[in-house]
Amino acid sequence: MHAPKDGRIALLKFFGIAKAMEKYRIIGEAVGFQVGDLIDNTAGPISPTLTNGLIIGRFKRGRTDKPSVITQDNIRGELGYEPNNPDYIAVQDCLDTGVPSVQVLRVGNYAQPEG
Amino acid sequence: MASLSLTIAGAWSTTVTGSNALIFNYGLFSYLGAGVKLQAWVDSKVPSPVTGDDLILTMKFYDSGTNDVIYQFSGTLNQDEETTGTIASVAHSMGIFSGLDILVDADSIVDAVLASDAYNAFNAIATENVEFALDDEQPPFFDADDVYEILISAPQKPSYLTLPRTDDLAVFNCVLRAAKQINIPMDAEIDPLMTIDEACQLANDLSVDDDRLQTIWSPNQCRPRQAPSVAGRMIPARAIGQYLGYKLLRNAQTTVEGIPPIADPVTGEKYPFKLPMLKLRDDIRYTPPNLQKLAAAKINVVRPMPTKAGIKFLLSDGLTHYRAKPNSALKLVNSAEILCYTFNSCIDILRSHMLRGMSSFLKDASKEIDEFLSQCSSQTAGLLKPAADLGGKPYRFALFPDQNYPFERVRFRLERRPEGMVRSVLTENIAAK
What we know:
The structure holds two protein chains of two kinds.
Chain A: H1 6-22, E1 23-24, E2 33-34, E3 53-57, E4 68-70, H2 75-79, H3 86-96, E5 102-106
Parallel strand pairs in A: 1-2, 3-5
Antiparallel strand pairs in A: 4-5
Chain B: E1 2-7, E2 12-13, E3 20-28, E4 36-44, E5 55-63, E6 69-76, H1 87-94, E7 97-104, H2 109-114, E8 119-120, E9 130-133, H3 144-153, E10 160-163, H4 169-182, E11 186-190, H5 196-205, E12 213-217, E13 220-222, E14 235-236, H6 240-252, E15 279-280, H7 288-296, E16 299-307, E17 310-315, H8 333-353, H9 358-377, E18 395-401, E19 410-416
Parallel strand pairs in B: 4-8, 10-11, 11-12, 12-16
Antiparallel strand pairs in B: 1-2, 1-3, 3-7, 4-5, 4-9, 5-6, 13-14, 13-15, 16-17, 18-19
Helix pairs in contact in B: 3-4, 5-7, 8-9
């Protein structure tokens, strides 16, 4: 890009100062424009998605304080491989349909009755 | 908290005694259960390590029965949590520890590692490691109130609650209570080994009258998931996992406005159940009285049905457990779900405008709700249909200030007519002259 000649530099400086003089974030008493940021009204409301399934069950492993995100990669590690457990089968079948992940909440066993 | 430690003399242990060059105290969120081992080893990054930064500690938790890796992570032997790549930083970022306390003695760590059994020199075949069997950790006993609170307070509200078993009434009641509270559908599966009478008895014994609950039953058999042959032991063919998967995949196919196609129920020919060598149990017979019984008990059965492409296993009904009025839309799975979805979405919109000026709240929220309901009523979404009760429109809503608390409270009233589902056809068979 060519450097502007001296006269053009002076002109650009003049308009730059002029522009800076008439634009304010908060105008107060001065003459000029109060200019805020661009208001983005282009984005509309996003409809809530319904792709968050939660399976509740008993498993060999896992946390019980909140749901875990289970995928094909971590199901055996996170929940423990139990091919005969109906809860495990449900999670596995769900993932086998092609769903990328499903939430799983592990619940504990019952307390043994005393005596 | 459990520990992994390395003494100055180079002995690895899961207890902390004497002078240690490394102490890794940890507590996991997960209860690992029985048969889990912790394996650890150290690799050197350079031929002659001088500091802990030259040494990489790897920790692997794995199931000794199946060899499945539960967690594995590596980091340099430095306890600085702010430096990326240190064992402390990596362990914290894993998000698996409820508590973590790491101490690395910079003066003795290199000598201790070099003297230990788990040191793998630079460019060596990494075969040296130490291994410890971990204690069998079991989760706390089932507490219905605790599980209920977890379900209703999750930051990301689930779309569906799914219960693969109905034999545990306490868990069933707890999950149903949560489904009612957060107003989302709940699907539960009846034991596939039951007889028709037992299944109907169980569904009736649940004595639920709620449009959010659906029970499905698959009295079928199949081969195990990874069975290499078609002949062999058959197992009960459970269906709820696949059913949930189909629903989530269906919901992902939204319209351009983002409305999920929930008017289309996951029933019938479009959603055939696929399991290896799926077949009906020999003792099950779908006679008209049996089918009547199942429908009366509100059980949606996965059963073999003839299609143009041959016999397929399909979910043959779409009933909720709504029992109050026999001709209500709430007894249909898709209609009930539309009613849940539209109301929940309007509540979400209202919530996003709350704690703002009354006038702008009324104006902006009304505009957004109208836009949303209009999208639900579009021909492509098809969730809501014109109704005579609503003046020929698919929905009607009102949002206005409360008379008693006009400065802080508004009232919201929503009426809409959901799409239905054809369950029966009355025919007239006429021979004309």
